[in-house]
UniProtKB/TrEMBL annotation:
One GO-annotated biological process of the protein: rRNA processing
Entry's localization field: Nucleus
First-listed, main subcellular location of the protein, grouped into a coarse class: nucleus
Domain of life: Eukaryota
Keyword Nucleus: yes
Pfam families the UniProt entry points to: Nop52 (PF05997)
Protein name, as recorded: Ribosomal RNA-processing protein 1
Keywords: Nucleus, rRNA processing
Length: 293
């Protein structure tokens, strides 16, 4: 799409019932959209965007969605791997600038936009959006850590997951929860131990890791997946959560699940034998997952 076409797209967003504050935001977003691979322009635009987003002005969910739609297309038009990697990180870092009153809505808006636009992503662009999801999840978790796991922000993050990517809703492409399952333990680990050198393996390092795990509300962070592993209508989704996330050795090491993974959590947080689900597995007739749409 040409710069003229892109400009028209942004103008359409700005004219679509948008408040003055969000029009201001998209003034910066336009610069990101029209020059997504131009590093100096993108850096300046993102700096302005971060500054504006940091203002303690509450934005309704709809305006957060419109903002994320513009940012979605900045990634869409970004070519070449390195600019894509930088842009994904830059967009994820926006979660460190958002005021507390907008954090939950900014989280939910991201997932809503991804769910709406996912089916339109062609295989040439898929990798960069998978990377964007990974970076956004990391920085959402990092913001929660920096806020010392503020209960309100934590609940907002969890509710955003439950309302959209982990809702089990048939309208959400299975590619989104499947990818989230694949990356979640990785990003939890990276967030928790970000400041510990990988080559540190002494007893002091192990003590640091243990302390970090103890003060991280891992049960709450994992609970949306546990709930979906019980309630998802799609059998392959239930099984993927159990085998690819809940059976992850890191979760066992962190004390979230038992070493013998024949048990898992109920929605209330209690443990339940997985065998209870076996009786109804033969009657499941859902279609198997056939890859990213």
């Amino acid at each position: 799409m040409s710069n003229i076409q892109t400009s028209a797209f942004v103008k359409k967003l700005a004219a679509n019932g948008m408040s003055t504050s969000t029009r201001h935001l998209l003034t910066h977003g336009r610069r990101i959209l029209t020059s997504p691979s131009d590093r100096p322009t993108r850096t300046a635009a993102l700096a302005s965007l971060k500054k504006f987003l940091s203002r303690p002005v509450e934005l309704p969910l709809l305006e957060n969605e419109k903002l994320w739609k513009g940012l979605f297309y900045s990634m869409w038009f970004c070519d070449r791997p390195r600019p894509q990697q930088r842009l994904a990180a830059d967009l994820g870092e926006l979660y460190l600038s958002i005021p507390s009153q907008n954090f939950s809505k900014f989280c939910l808006a991201f997932w809503i936009v991804m769910a709406r636009e996912w089916m339109a992503i062609d295989h040439h662009r898929l990798d960069k959006f998978l990377l964007l999801v990974r970076r956004v999840v990391f920085f959402q978790l990092k913001r929660l850590r920096e806020e010392e796991w503020n209960e309100t922000l934590l609940q907002g993050f969890v509710e955003a997951l439950k309302k959209c990517p982990l809702s089990g809703d048939a309208k959400v492409s299975t590619g989104i929860p499947f990818h989230l399952i694949d990356i979640y333990a990785d990003e939890l680990e990276r967030m928790m131990f970000e400041e510990i050198q990988e080559d540190e393996e002494d007893e002091e390092d192990e003590e640091k890791r243990s302390e970090i795990v103890d003060r991280t509300p891992l049960d709450e962070l994992i609970q949306p997946f546990v709930t979906l592993s019980k309630e998802a209508l799609l059998k392959t989704l239930r099984e993927k959560i159990k085998t690819d996330l809940l059976a992850d050795e890191r979760l066992k090491k962190w004390g979230i699940v038992e070493e013998e993974s024949k048990k898992t959590f109920t929605e209330s947080g209690d443990e339940e034998d997985e065998g209870e689900d076996e009786d109804d597995e033969e009657s499941d007739s859902e279609e198997e997952w056939n890859g990213f749409a």
